[in-house]
Amino acid sequence: MTTALRPVTTASATSDTCGHFFGANVHLLPQTDQLRALHTVVRNRDASREDFVFGAGRIIRMLTEAALNLLPFEPYDVTTPVGSTYHGLRFAQKLIGVPIIRAGESMEAELRAVVPGIRIGKILIQRDKTTKQPHLYYTALPQDIADRQVLLLDPMLATGGTALAAIEVLRELGVPEEHIVFVNFITCPEGIAAVADRYPGVRIVTSAVENGLNEQAYMLPGIGDFGDRYFGTD
Ligand code: URA
């Protein structure tokens, strides 16, 4: 399954097998031995919380870097210390990170570390225990969000219900689909299909695509409850 997806580092858009497979803009991190070793740490049910947080943080840093590579840049010249010109680049548009509370907040620190001073919004969505439907409880987003490139942060993309509700919030505020990069730790075909069907312009950056979901909507082989393991509330 994962080999059918386009690695972030692949330059050619014409060999876009993930686009055909999922109808999605899915950017899968290159499945290096280092990445797989980190996944081995965090997926181990016996991992200490310290090891889980450390391994997850390393992978989140890789995801963050890959997501930044998808943003638009513009030419920007600087003068070097020897008086020469370096024809460089800088971000072409204002950015914002929007973690979906609570698990998405685990991704905030790595984003702040590589983009100091980045604006951080918040969206709180929780699934109603009876209806199983996602319910929007709270948003904190700047007025100019429609002018920003949005890094939407949520480590788990399982059924896609929460992701769809969060993207809908952004779309209603005028954010174009093409300005949204969903930064995600692990996902599965069901989650990718849910996002791609409704919002084909949204790009997904992920480090793993799982086999599917169990009856409780946990991904398999999966990682368990990411929020509980990261924040130590299980
Ligand atoms: N949320 C999680 O934390 N884990 C899953 O496998 C699915 C949703």
UniProtKB/TrEMBL annotation:
Domain Phosphoribosyltransferase positions: 30-233
Gene3D superfamilies found in the cross-reference section: 3.40.50.2020
TM stretches of this protein: none
One Pfam family per UniProt: UPRTase
Superkingdom in the source lineage: Bacteria
Molecular function as annotated in GO: glycosyltransferase activity
InterPro entries on file: PRTase-like (IPR029057), PRTase_dom (IPR000836)
Alphabetical UniProt keywords: Glycosyltransferase, Transferase
Protein name: Uracil phosphoribosyltransferase
Organism: Streptomyces longisporus
Organism lineage string: Bacteria, Bacillati, Actinomycetota, Actinomycetes, Kitasatosporales
